[in-house]
Write a structure and sequence with these properties.
about 375 residues; alpha/beta; Rossmann fold; 2 domains; six-stranded parallel beta sheet; 20 helices; about 55% helix
Length: about 375
């Protein structure tokens, strides 16, 4: 029985979803040898890490260019690992900049390729989709409309549901959470989620906090909690928060923050969808270096960057990107979502519909089954 699998996940969300996949693959075939790029969650389940996601994290084209020599080294070492370990299947999790190059190398070596969590190629135009048509054997997609897009292009794509449905859950109720962190149930709570990378936190958190300062001038009862990412050091946050005594930096309770806040301000990415699954009103923000923004503006073919709005196929939550991400623009939207009951109700209803679109739990199990079948049909 074939048993060697390489997996490449380059970001925190990839480690999260990859860990579910690794767990289910071992459950279906216990003698697997799984290796590649991932994070602590994948490693803890038995995957051998050749590189850790913390080494791979970048934001924007300029950050990639600055680390070009490192990523070239990673690519060559991963190709060398293909030749050394001879995997029968390569599983790619999002992260297209590196993964499509590795797919080409794997194709030359007759390694079967499964893409789990497709790159958002539909946002960038058809060129990237055509590359995948040439390289990918199967795709396990997690956004409903992706299946038809990739099938129409000629890729064997299957909608497996969204893996977040398996894991998004608050472990403690609101009363316990508020008591534990000294929050007042009678006053509004705003949760800030500035991302899972150092650069994201450095770019987004200062303006988030400036918005809070201005908002508290008008509504001094507002409480603010910040979700600390495990992949970002405490001193990064402390250097930004400094002596702001009106915010609390909380660790290892991201889902509780999402569940029990009245409003969230969230960096664009997986966290926006996680927030939506808790049906908590949110505002999406993002900022990259100017070069990446100008290039991306020319290439991106859709109006929204937030997964919540993309899946809804309409703008149901506000987005503030680049120069629009300013406290004076955020503040009116935050006031509306906090204090306008009709607007809050409409947004919550729309978020509930997002959850209904994402299928049923079991994406990791279904994708693992696809991978095992590919492995043993080689």
């Amino acid at each position: 029985m074939k048993n060697k699998v390489m997996i490449v996940a380059g970001e925190a969300s990839g480690d999260l979803h990859g860990s579910g996949l690794v767990r289910e693959m071992f459950a279906q075939q216990s003698d697997l040898e799984i290796f590649g790029i991932g994070g602590d969650q994948m490693s803890n389940l038995g995957m051998q890490l050749l590189y850790h996601i913390n080494e791979m994290s970048v934001v924007g084209l300029w950050d990639v260019l600055k680390r070009f020599a490192f990523f070239r080294k990673v690519y060559h070492n991963m190709v060398a690992a293909m030749d050394k370990y001879l995997p029968e299947v390569l599983i790619l999790i999002d992260y297209p900049g590196m993964n499509l190059k590795l797919a080409r190398a794997a194709k030359k070596r007759d390694i079967r390729i499964l893409y789990y969590i497709a790159p958002q190629a539909w946002a960038w135009g058809s060129n990237r989709i055509q590359k995948m048509v040439q390289l990918v054997d199967k795709m396990a997609v997690i956004i409903p409309f992706e299946e038809q897009i990739f099938r129409d292009a000629g890729i064997d794509a299957t909608f497996v549901g969204h893996p977040l449905l398996e894991i998004v859950n608050s472990k403690i109720d609101q009363s316990t959470f508020f008591s534990k962190y000294g929050l007042n149930a009678n006053h509004p709570v705003i949760g800030l989620l500035p991302g899972s990378r150092n650069l994201e936190v450095k770019r987004l958190l200062p303006e988030m906090l400036q918005t809070i300062v201005q908002l508290r001038n008008k509504y001094p009862q507002i409480q603010t909690i910040i979700s600390k990412s495990n992949s970002v050091a405490w001193d990064v946050y402390q250097g930004i928060i400094q002596n702001n005594v009106h915010v609390k930096l909380l660790e290892n309770c991201t889902y509780e923050i999402m569940k029990h806040s009245d409003l969230l301000v969230v960096a664009s990415g997986t966290a926006t969808l996680e927030s939506a699954l808790f049906e908590t009103p949110l505002i999406i923000v993002y900022k990259v270096d100017p070069i990446s923004y100008l290039i991306g503006k020319q290439l991106i073919k859709i109006d929204s960057i937030g997964l919540v709005n993309v899946i809804a196929e309409k703008k149901i939550v506000p987005e503030f990107v680049q120069h629009q991400f300013r406290w004076n623009k955020l503040m009116p939207e935050m006031e509306n979502l906090l204090f306008n009951d009709d607007q809050r109700t409409d947004v919550i209803d729309d978020l509930r519909k997002i959850k209904e679109k994402l299928g049923s739990p079991g994406a990791s199990r279904r994708t693992a089954k696809m991978a095992i079948e590919m492995l043993n049909s080689v």
